[in-house]
Amino acid sequence: MSAFLLSGLTGLLFAFPLNLALRSGVFLAVAFIAAPTLRRSSGARSHQFWLLCLLAVLALPVFVYLFPTLDLPLLSAHARTVPLETGLGSMSPAGETQSLSVSSAPYSERAEMPDSAPGTVAWSLWMAGAWAIGSCFCILRLMLGMAATYAKTRRAQAMNDAEWVALLEEARERIGVRRQVRLLVGASEEIPMTWGVLKSTILLPPSAMSWPLPQKRAVLEHELAHVKRADVTAQLVAQLACALYWFNPLTWRATARLSISAERACDDLVLAAGARPSEYADHLLAMLRTMRFAPASPLISAAMAHHSSLEQRVRSLLDPRQDRQAPSRRVRALLLGAIATLGILSGTLQPIARAEEATQQLIVAPNVAALNPETKAQWQAEGIT
Predict the structure, then answer these.
(1) Whole-angstrom Cα distance, residue 182 to residue 152?
(2) What is each CA distance from 68 to 11, 161, 337, in whole angstroms?
(3) For 84, what's the count of Cα atoms within 13 Å in the CB-facing half-sphere?
(4) Residue 251: what pLDDT?
(5) Is the pTM here over 0.85, yes or no?
(6) What is d(CA 197, CA 212) in angstroms, rounded to the nearest whole number?
(7) What is the arithmetic mean of pLDDT over 194-207?
(8) What per-residue confidence (pLDDT) applies to 302?
Protein backbone atom coordinates (compact mmCIF):
# COMPACT_ATOMS: atom_id res chain seq x y z
CA MET A 1 0.00 0.00 0.00
CA SER A 2 2.83 2.41 0.86
CA ALA A 3 4.48 1.73 -2.49
CA PHE A 4 1.18 2.41 -4.26
CA LEU A 5 0.65 5.72 -2.42
CA LEU A 6 4.25 6.76 -3.03
CA SER A 7 3.94 5.95 -6.72
CA GLY A 8 0.69 7.90 -7.01
CA LEU A 9 2.05 10.90 -5.12
CA THR A 10 5.19 10.88 -7.25
CA GLY A 11 3.15 10.80 -10.42
CA LEU A 12 0.98 13.68 -9.25
CA LEU A 13 3.93 15.83 -8.21
CA PHE A 14 5.67 15.19 -11.49
CA ALA A 15 2.63 15.42 -13.76
CA PHE A 16 0.98 18.58 -12.38
CA PRO A 17 3.56 21.24 -13.37
CA LEU A 18 4.76 19.34 -16.43
CA ASN A 19 1.27 18.63 -17.71
CA LEU A 20 0.11 22.22 -17.23
CA ALA A 21 3.30 23.58 -18.77
CA LEU A 22 2.81 21.57 -21.95
CA ARG A 23 -0.91 22.27 -22.26
CA SER A 24 -0.66 25.99 -21.51
CA GLY A 25 2.28 26.28 -23.90
CA VAL A 26 0.32 24.69 -26.73
CA PHE A 27 -2.75 26.82 -26.03
CA LEU A 28 -0.87 30.12 -25.89
CA ALA A 29 1.22 29.21 -28.93
CA VAL A 30 -2.01 28.80 -30.92
CA ALA A 31 -3.23 32.14 -29.50
CA PHE A 32 -0.09 33.96 -30.65
CA ILE A 33 -0.37 32.36 -34.07
CA ALA A 34 -3.92 33.71 -34.36
CA ALA A 35 -3.04 37.13 -32.87
CA PRO A 36 -1.92 38.78 -36.16
CA THR A 37 -5.52 38.58 -37.37
CA LEU A 38 -6.34 41.25 -34.73
CA ARG A 39 -3.74 43.72 -36.00
CA ARG A 40 -6.36 46.07 -37.45
CA SER A 41 -8.89 45.40 -34.71
CA SER A 42 -9.81 47.85 -31.98
CA GLY A 43 -8.09 47.86 -28.61
CA ALA A 44 -11.26 46.60 -26.94
CA ARG A 45 -11.45 43.55 -29.21
CA SER A 46 -7.77 42.77 -28.73
CA HIS A 47 -8.13 43.18 -24.96
CA GLN A 48 -11.05 40.78 -24.86
CA PHE A 49 -9.07 38.22 -26.86
CA TRP A 50 -6.08 38.23 -24.50
CA LEU A 51 -8.25 38.34 -21.39
CA LEU A 52 -10.21 35.28 -22.51
CA CYS A 53 -6.94 33.49 -23.31
CA LEU A 54 -5.58 34.15 -19.82
CA LEU A 55 -8.86 33.07 -18.25
CA ALA A 56 -8.70 29.87 -20.28
CA VAL A 57 -5.19 28.99 -19.10
CA LEU A 58 -6.29 29.69 -15.51
CA ALA A 59 -9.11 27.18 -16.04
CA LEU A 60 -6.79 24.51 -17.49
CA PRO A 61 -6.36 22.72 -14.12
CA VAL A 62 -10.15 22.39 -13.94
CA PHE A 63 -10.29 21.01 -17.47
CA VAL A 64 -7.42 18.58 -16.81
CA TYR A 65 -8.50 17.10 -13.48
CA LEU A 66 -12.29 17.39 -13.50
CA PHE A 67 -13.25 16.77 -17.13
CA PRO A 68 -13.00 13.29 -18.70
CA THR A 69 -9.89 12.72 -20.78
CA LEU A 70 -10.33 12.39 -24.53
CA ASP A 71 -7.78 10.09 -26.16
CA LEU A 72 -6.11 11.39 -29.31
CA PRO A 73 -4.63 8.37 -31.13
CA LEU A 74 -1.36 9.06 -32.90
CA LEU A 75 0.30 6.62 -35.34
CA SER A 76 3.61 5.27 -34.19
CA ALA A 77 6.24 3.35 -36.11
CA HIS A 78 5.37 0.08 -37.95
CA ALA A 79 4.87 -2.77 -35.53
CA ARG A 80 7.36 -5.61 -36.00
CA THR A 81 6.41 -9.26 -35.52
CA VAL A 82 8.99 -10.95 -33.36
CA PRO A 83 8.83 -14.06 -31.17
CA LEU A 84 7.35 -13.13 -27.80
CA GLU A 85 8.29 -15.32 -24.89
CA THR A 86 5.71 -15.27 -22.14
CA GLY A 87 4.85 -17.29 -19.10
CA LEU A 88 2.15 -19.04 -21.14
CA GLY A 89 4.27 -20.11 -24.07
CA SER A 90 5.63 -18.46 -27.20
CA MET A 91 4.26 -16.65 -30.22
CA SER A 92 5.81 -16.54 -33.67
CA PRO A 93 5.10 -15.35 -37.20
CA ALA A 94 2.83 -17.32 -39.52
CA GLY A 95 4.38 -20.47 -40.86
CA GLU A 96 6.27 -21.17 -37.65
CA THR A 97 4.90 -22.97 -34.62
CA GLN A 98 6.37 -23.22 -31.19
CA SER A 99 5.28 -25.06 -28.09
CA LEU A 100 2.82 -23.60 -25.59
CA SER A 101 3.46 -24.39 -21.97
CA VAL A 102 1.25 -23.08 -19.16
CA SER A 103 3.03 -21.84 -16.07
CA SER A 104 1.73 -23.37 -12.88
CA ALA A 105 3.70 -21.13 -10.54
CA PRO A 106 1.58 -19.90 -7.61
CA TYR A 107 0.63 -16.23 -7.32
CA SER A 108 2.94 -15.70 -4.37
CA GLU A 109 5.95 -16.61 -6.52
CA ARG A 110 5.17 -14.11 -9.25
CA ALA A 111 7.23 -10.92 -9.47
CA GLU A 112 5.77 -7.90 -7.72
CA MET A 113 5.74 -4.37 -9.19
CA PRO A 114 8.92 -2.60 -8.11
CA ASP A 115 8.68 0.51 -6.01
CA SER A 116 9.28 3.90 -7.55
CA ALA A 117 12.94 4.62 -8.03
CA PRO A 118 14.39 7.04 -5.45
CA GLY A 119 15.78 9.20 -8.26
CA THR A 120 12.31 9.59 -9.79
CA VAL A 121 10.80 10.63 -6.44
CA ALA A 122 13.57 13.19 -5.85
CA TRP A 123 13.21 14.63 -9.35
CA SER A 124 9.44 14.92 -8.92
CA LEU A 125 9.82 16.67 -5.58
CA TRP A 126 12.38 19.09 -7.00
CA MET A 127 10.10 19.94 -9.93
CA ALA A 128 7.02 20.44 -7.77
CA GLY A 129 9.04 22.48 -5.27
CA ALA A 130 10.47 24.76 -7.96
CA TRP A 131 7.00 25.36 -9.38
CA ALA A 132 5.59 26.16 -5.92
CA ILE A 133 8.48 28.51 -5.05
CA GLY A 134 8.07 30.41 -8.32
CA SER A 135 4.32 30.76 -7.79
CA CYS A 136 4.79 31.97 -4.21
CA PHE A 137 7.35 34.52 -5.40
CA CYS A 138 4.87 35.91 -7.94
CA ILE A 139 2.12 36.07 -5.31
CA LEU A 140 4.51 37.87 -2.96
CA ARG A 141 5.35 40.32 -5.74
CA LEU A 142 1.64 40.96 -6.24
CA MET A 143 1.11 41.54 -2.52
CA LEU A 144 4.03 43.97 -2.41
CA GLY A 145 2.40 45.89 -5.26
CA MET A 146 -0.82 46.06 -3.26
CA ALA A 147 1.07 47.30 -0.23
CA ALA A 148 2.83 49.97 -2.31
CA THR A 149 -0.50 51.16 -3.69
CA TYR A 150 -1.99 51.27 -0.19
CA ALA A 151 0.98 53.36 0.92
CA LYS A 152 0.35 55.79 -1.95
CA THR A 153 -3.26 56.09 -0.82
CA ARG A 154 -2.22 56.88 2.75
CA ARG A 155 0.18 59.60 1.61
CA ALA A 156 -2.22 61.13 -0.93
CA GLN A 157 -4.76 63.84 -0.27
CA ALA A 158 -8.31 64.21 -1.54
CA MET A 159 -8.76 66.53 -4.51
CA ASN A 160 -11.01 69.34 -3.24
CA ASP A 161 -10.48 71.77 -6.11
CA ALA A 162 -13.89 72.82 -7.45
CA GLU A 163 -12.75 72.77 -11.07
CA TRP A 164 -11.41 69.22 -10.82
CA VAL A 165 -14.53 68.00 -9.04
CA ALA A 166 -16.75 69.49 -11.77
CA LEU A 167 -14.55 68.03 -14.52
CA LEU A 168 -14.74 64.60 -12.86
CA GLU A 169 -18.56 64.65 -12.90
CA GLU A 170 -18.62 65.76 -16.55
CA ALA A 171 -16.14 63.08 -17.56
CA ARG A 172 -18.15 60.39 -15.73
CA GLU A 173 -21.21 61.38 -17.75
CA ARG A 174 -19.35 61.39 -21.08
CA ILE A 175 -17.62 58.04 -20.51
CA GLY A 176 -20.67 56.42 -18.91
CA VAL A 177 -19.34 55.60 -15.43
CA ARG A 178 -22.10 55.34 -12.83
CA ARG A 179 -20.11 54.29 -9.78
CA GLN A 180 -18.48 56.82 -7.49
CA VAL A 181 -14.76 57.42 -8.04
CA ARG A 182 -12.35 58.85 -5.51
CA LEU A 183 -9.93 61.50 -6.82
CA LEU A 184 -6.60 61.90 -4.99
CA VAL A 185 -3.44 63.97 -5.36
CA GLY A 186 -0.22 62.05 -4.77
CA ALA A 187 2.97 63.14 -3.07
CA SER A 188 5.29 62.62 -6.07
CA GLU A 189 5.31 63.29 -9.79
CA GLU A 190 4.10 59.96 -11.12
CA ILE A 191 1.98 58.99 -14.10
CA PRO A 192 -1.77 59.22 -13.34
CA MET A 193 -3.13 55.80 -12.44
CA THR A 194 -6.28 54.02 -11.35
CA TRP A 195 -6.75 51.13 -8.92
CA GLY A 196 -9.46 49.43 -6.93
CA VAL A 197 -11.79 46.55 -7.79
CA LEU A 198 -14.75 47.47 -5.57
CA LYS A 199 -13.88 51.11 -4.88
CA SER A 200 -12.10 52.89 -7.71
CA THR A 201 -9.44 55.52 -7.06
CA ILE A 202 -7.70 57.90 -9.46
CA LEU A 203 -4.32 59.27 -8.39
CA LEU A 204 -3.01 62.50 -9.93
CA PRO A 205 0.44 64.11 -9.55
CA PRO A 206 0.82 67.46 -7.73
CA SER A 207 1.52 69.24 -11.03
CA ALA A 208 -2.00 68.38 -12.23
CA MET A 209 -3.25 71.63 -10.71
CA SER A 210 -1.41 73.62 -13.41
CA TRP A 211 -2.42 71.49 -16.40
CA PRO A 212 -4.37 73.09 -19.24
CA LEU A 213 -8.07 72.31 -19.34
CA PRO A 214 -7.92 69.90 -22.36
CA GLN A 215 -5.23 67.82 -20.63
CA LYS A 216 -7.28 67.62 -17.44
CA ARG A 217 -10.27 66.33 -19.38
CA ALA A 218 -8.23 63.83 -21.35
CA VAL A 219 -6.59 62.38 -18.23
CA LEU A 220 -9.87 62.03 -16.35
CA GLU A 221 -11.61 60.44 -19.33
CA HIS A 222 -8.77 57.97 -19.82
CA GLU A 223 -8.71 56.91 -16.17
CA LEU A 224 -12.50 56.68 -16.03
CA ALA A 225 -12.36 54.47 -19.12
CA HIS A 226 -10.25 52.04 -17.06
CA VAL A 227 -12.96 52.11 -14.40
CA LYS A 228 -15.74 51.48 -16.91
CA ARG A 229 -13.89 48.60 -18.54
CA ALA A 230 -12.82 47.00 -15.19
CA ASP A 231 -9.22 46.89 -16.39
CA VAL A 232 -7.86 46.60 -12.84
CA THR A 233 -9.76 43.34 -12.40
CA ALA A 234 -8.45 42.09 -15.74
CA GLN A 235 -4.91 42.99 -14.66
CA LEU A 236 -5.39 41.00 -11.47
CA VAL A 237 -6.50 37.98 -13.50
CA ALA A 238 -3.38 38.30 -15.65
CA GLN A 239 -1.12 38.42 -12.57
CA LEU A 240 -2.74 35.26 -11.19
CA ALA A 241 -2.11 33.53 -14.52
CA CYS A 242 1.54 34.61 -14.36
CA ALA A 243 1.78 33.23 -10.83
CA LEU A 244 0.46 29.84 -11.93
CA TYR A 245 2.46 29.68 -15.17
CA TRP A 246 5.54 31.72 -14.22
CA PHE A 247 7.72 29.22 -16.10
CA ASN A 248 5.93 29.88 -19.41
CA PRO A 249 7.26 33.03 -21.15
CA LEU A 250 4.17 33.14 -23.36
CA THR A 251 2.07 33.90 -20.26
CA TRP A 252 4.12 37.03 -19.56
CA ARG A 253 3.93 38.09 -23.19
CA ALA A 254 0.15 37.64 -23.19
CA THR A 255 -0.07 39.78 -20.03
CA ALA A 256 1.94 42.53 -21.74
CA ARG A 257 -0.36 42.36 -24.78
CA LEU A 258 -3.36 42.62 -22.43
CA SER A 259 -1.98 45.77 -20.80
CA ILE A 260 -1.19 47.47 -24.12
CA SER A 261 -4.59 46.65 -25.59
CA ALA A 262 -6.29 48.03 -22.44
CA GLU A 263 -4.52 51.38 -22.94
CA ARG A 264 -5.51 51.44 -26.61
CA ALA A 265 -9.13 50.68 -25.72
CA CYS A 266 -9.18 53.56 -23.22
CA ASP A 267 -7.61 55.86 -25.82
CA ASP A 268 -10.42 54.93 -28.21
CA LEU A 269 -13.01 55.87 -25.59
CA VAL A 270 -11.32 59.24 -25.04
CA LEU A 271 -11.38 59.95 -28.78
CA ALA A 272 -15.01 58.88 -28.92
CA ALA A 273 -15.76 61.45 -26.19
CA GLY A 274 -14.51 64.24 -28.47
CA ALA A 275 -10.74 64.54 -27.97
CA ARG A 276 -8.57 65.35 -31.00
CA PRO A 277 -6.07 62.54 -31.79
CA SER A 278 -3.05 64.83 -32.30
CA GLU A 279 -3.76 66.87 -29.18
CA TYR A 280 -4.31 63.76 -27.09
CA ALA A 281 -1.02 62.27 -28.35
CA ASP A 282 0.74 65.47 -27.28
CA HIS A 283 -0.66 65.01 -23.75
CA LEU A 284 0.79 61.50 -23.58
CA LEU A 285 4.22 62.67 -24.72
CA ALA A 286 4.21 65.60 -22.27
CA MET A 287 3.46 63.37 -19.28
CA LEU A 288 6.13 60.85 -20.20
CA ARG A 289 8.71 63.63 -20.47
CA THR A 290 7.94 65.23 -17.11
CA MET A 291 6.82 62.32 -14.88
CA ARG A 292 8.20 59.00 -13.78
CA PHE A 293 6.51 55.63 -13.95
CA ALA A 294 6.08 53.71 -10.69
CA PRO A 295 7.47 50.17 -11.16
CA ALA A 296 4.94 48.54 -8.82
CA SER A 297 1.84 50.14 -10.32
CA PRO A 298 1.25 47.71 -13.23
CA LEU A 299 0.67 44.86 -10.77
CA ILE A 300 -2.76 45.93 -9.56
CA SER A 301 -3.39 49.31 -11.19
CA ALA A 302 -3.78 50.85 -14.63
CA ALA A 303 -1.49 53.74 -15.53
CA MET A 304 -2.23 56.21 -18.29
CA ALA A 305 1.10 56.01 -20.11
CA HIS A 306 4.17 53.82 -20.36
CA HIS A 307 7.30 54.02 -22.49
CA SER A 308 7.00 50.45 -23.81
CA SER A 309 3.56 51.01 -25.38
CA LEU A 310 3.87 54.68 -26.37
CA GLU A 311 4.96 54.15 -29.97
CA GLN A 312 2.21 51.67 -30.73
CA ARG A 313 -0.43 53.86 -29.07
CA VAL A 314 0.60 57.04 -30.88
CA ARG A 315 0.62 55.20 -34.20
CA SER A 316 -2.86 53.90 -33.47
CA LEU A 317 -4.10 57.35 -32.41
CA LEU A 318 -2.92 59.03 -35.62
CA ASP A 319 -4.09 56.24 -37.96
CA PRO A 320 -7.48 57.25 -39.45
CA ARG A 321 -8.04 53.68 -40.69
CA GLN A 322 -7.73 52.16 -37.22
CA ASP A 323 -10.86 50.40 -35.97
CA ARG A 324 -12.00 51.97 -32.69
CA GLN A 325 -15.35 50.26 -32.21
CA ALA A 326 -16.05 47.95 -29.30
CA PRO A 327 -16.81 44.35 -30.33
CA SER A 328 -20.47 43.56 -30.84
CA ARG A 329 -22.29 40.89 -28.86
CA ARG A 330 -22.05 38.49 -31.77
CA VAL A 331 -18.29 38.95 -32.06
CA ARG A 332 -17.89 38.53 -28.30
CA ALA A 333 -19.95 35.34 -28.34
CA LEU A 334 -17.95 33.89 -31.24
CA LEU A 335 -14.66 34.80 -29.61
CA LEU A 336 -15.75 33.33 -26.28
CA GLY A 337 -16.93 30.12 -27.93
CA ALA A 338 -13.74 29.67 -29.95
CA ILE A 339 -11.37 30.26 -27.03
CA ALA A 340 -13.46 28.15 -24.63
CA THR A 341 -13.48 25.26 -27.11
CA LEU A 342 -9.72 25.51 -27.62
CA GLY A 343 -9.18 25.67 -23.86
CA ILE A 344 -11.32 22.59 -23.20
CA LEU A 345 -9.57 20.64 -25.96
CA SER A 346 -6.17 21.68 -24.60
CA GLY A 347 -7.17 20.45 -21.15
CA THR A 348 -8.88 17.19 -22.07
CA LEU A 349 -7.10 15.81 -25.15
CA GLN A 350 -4.53 13.18 -24.25
CA PRO A 351 -2.22 12.00 -27.07
CA ILE A 352 -1.71 8.22 -27.08
CA ALA A 353 0.47 6.06 -29.28
CA ARG A 354 -1.29 3.64 -31.66
CA ALA A 355 0.78 1.14 -33.64
CA GLU A 356 -0.08 0.46 -37.25
CA GLU A 357 -1.37 -2.99 -38.15
CA ALA A 358 1.33 -5.62 -38.33
CA THR A 359 2.09 -7.02 -41.76
CA GLN A 360 2.53 -10.55 -40.42
CA GLN A 361 0.05 -12.79 -38.67
CA LEU A 362 0.75 -14.32 -35.29
CA ILE A 363 -0.18 -17.92 -34.51
CA VAL A 364 -0.20 -19.68 -31.15
CA ALA A 365 0.32 -23.44 -31.41
CA PRO A 366 -0.12 -25.78 -28.42
CA ASN A 367 2.30 -28.57 -27.57
CA VAL A 368 0.19 -31.54 -28.66
CA ALA A 369 2.76 -34.08 -27.51
CA ALA A 370 2.26 -32.96 -23.91
CA LEU A 371 -1.49 -33.76 -23.95
CA ASN A 372 -2.91 -36.93 -22.40
CA PRO A 373 -4.01 -39.64 -24.93
CA GLU A 374 -7.76 -39.08 -24.44
CA THR A 375 -7.56 -35.31 -25.01
CA LYS A 376 -5.20 -35.80 -27.93
CA ALA A 377 -7.56 -38.32 -29.58
CA GLN A 378 -10.56 -36.01 -29.00
CA TRP A 379 -8.76 -33.03 -30.56
CA GLN A 380 -7.69 -35.14 -33.54
CA ALA A 381 -11.28 -36.33 -34.04
CA GLU A 382 -12.56 -32.75 -33.99
CA GLY A 383 -9.85 -31.60 -36.39
CA ILE A 384 -8.25 -29.18 -33.94
CA THR A 385 -4.74 -30.54 -34.54
Answers:
(1) 14
(2) 18, 60, 20
(3) 10
(4) 94
(5) no
(6) 30
(7) 89
(8) 65
